[in-house]
Amino acid sequence: MDTAISLTHLVKKFGNQTVLKDVNFNVESGQIVGLIGPSGSGKSTVIKIALGMEVSDGGNAEVLGKTMPNRQLLGQIGYMAQSDALYDSLSGYENLKFFAQMKGISKANVQTEIEHVTQVVDLQDDIKKRVSGYSGGMQRRLSLAIALLGKPELLVLDEPTVGIDPALRRKVWTELKAIREQGRSILITTHVMSEAEQVDQVTLLLGGKVIAFDTPSQLKEQYQVSSIEDAFLKAEGEL
Amino acid sequence: MRTLAIMNRVIKELLRDKRTLALMFLAPILILFMLKLMFDTNSTTNVTIATVDLDGGIRTELNDAKHVSAKDYTSLKSAKAALKDEKVDAIVKQNGSTYDITYANTDSSKTTATKMAFKNAVTTNSITQMKSTIALLAKQSGARVQTANGATMQVHNHYNYGDADTGFFAKIIPLLIGFFVFFFVFLIPGMALLKERSTGTLDRLLATPVKRSEIVFGYMLSYGILAIIQTAIIVVVAVWLLDIEVVGNIFSVMFVNIILAFVALAFGILMSTFARSEFQMMQFIPIIVMPQIFFSGIIPLDSMATWVQSIAYILPIKYAGDAQSQIILHGNSIFNLGLDIGVLLIFIIVLTTLNIVGMKRYRKA
Description:
The complex is a heterodimer. Chain A is an alpha/beta fold. Chain A is built from 8 helices and 10 strands. In chain A, the strands form 2 sheets. A 6-stranded mixed beta sheet of chain A has the order 6-7-8-3-9-10, with helices on both faces. Chain A has a 4-stranded antiparallel beta sheet with strand order 2-1-4-5, covered by helices on one side. By secondary structure, chain B is an alpha/beta fold. Chain B has helices at residues 2-15, 18-41, 56-64, 76-84, 108-141, 168-199, 201-206, 212-241, 250-272, 278-282, 284-294, 306-312, 316-328, 338-358; strands at residues 47-52, 68-73, 90-95, 98-103. In chain B, helix 2 packs antiparallel against helix 6 and helix 8 runs antiparallel to helix 14. Chain B is elongated. Chain B starts with a helix and ends in a 7-residue tail after the last helix. The relative contact order of chain B is 0.11.
């Protein structure tokens, strides 16, 4: 099995504050890996290093077999940040088209790509409207649609389902699982513990270290609890 | 390719932001027009002088002078009351051969005009007296004295630039054109990039294979096009609507301003990386934008202290102002201004490079 993300002994300091102490974990091809941890545990920093926006002070970050930072590789990664990061005065369609151009999707495929992702996030009726008129949930969906553009080998999603209603959340997860079936990989951070139950591997990040890296069921067994949420709380308590 | 896509997007966003568009295109016109009104109305100074016990000859000369009227008061007390009520601008009191002049001095140009008018009146009066004395002496001695009475002297004025009505406004307008271009172009693109940073779209953009240089060039191009239109409008308004005479080539004027606009553009983008919010961007106005106006040449640089003069050399507007004045006032060709243009181009290259490197703060590759 190929490895989509391989993080080994990552260390990251900001000034004299050490945010990541020794982070090791892998995302294999065709896997959904959930990254969970309290705020300030370093989740965003891990993502930034994986995308090459930051460089680690120690250790190695390999994505799709190449050492990050690597600009060319970003074309194969779909990224969705915590903030919606959309151009308000443009329509949904214009936002999608712009990012499709930035990702380097060929002209011939742009149209079909946009149609496909629009359908996945259920925005067909509102795609011509300006983003300034979108509800919070619609903006979140558009943001996800942008990440899905170009069928990236790897998806990095930071809190993708915040502010999305349960019906749509289910739909999004169906799509994520379909992506996994195609052998593509997903790294996802979440606060919703019921979502954490659906991933293949859970990475529990606490105080800049990976406390646990296992399947949800084994994690629950290890901490002798019935849910990921309890495992999370127990791990936090033990530290 | 990506550069063009970014350019398209920025322009599209801008065209939908009517307020910013109005600021870029209408505000400079409005300000230029108001400046014109300010500087044009007050070109002549009229003074009224109160005279007390003044020699009749001097008083007549004073009254005959242009823009001066003399008013006789019987007592110093009533003259002082008039001065207090702002009815007169100065009081001239004669005590034998001593003249006491009291100025209101609330308007320095009126004080200067009064001083000049009085001096002229005294001189003219003494010449008239001398002439009549000489004529009297000649009559008594029987000698023939030729006086220049018949032949009147004629003075013809020729103006190398403008005409008799050319005022301060004509001198500062080339400099102000440059300043406006700098001011408006400095703020808006920086703000736009700042907004990209704060909304997170810059991060998202950098999470695609776009090159850092493509982002910088996209911004430079889109706002560059806007700056070109804006500069053209400002120059056209200044020249035709406000009737500013351009001795040199008007396209050279535009060219210099467009280069200055690109400097301001790159500078604004660079400064926006040091700001965390739109308000912090505004804080650059007093420390970056305002000094430009003082060193643009509105106040002659050679009258300043040497160390102050050397500051001007690091400010781009000095070079633009120099070139601008040379073209508008002296009719110099742009090809003789290689140094000024060259320095401005160096500013553009250095600032743009800094911008591209500076983006590394947000993405390491």
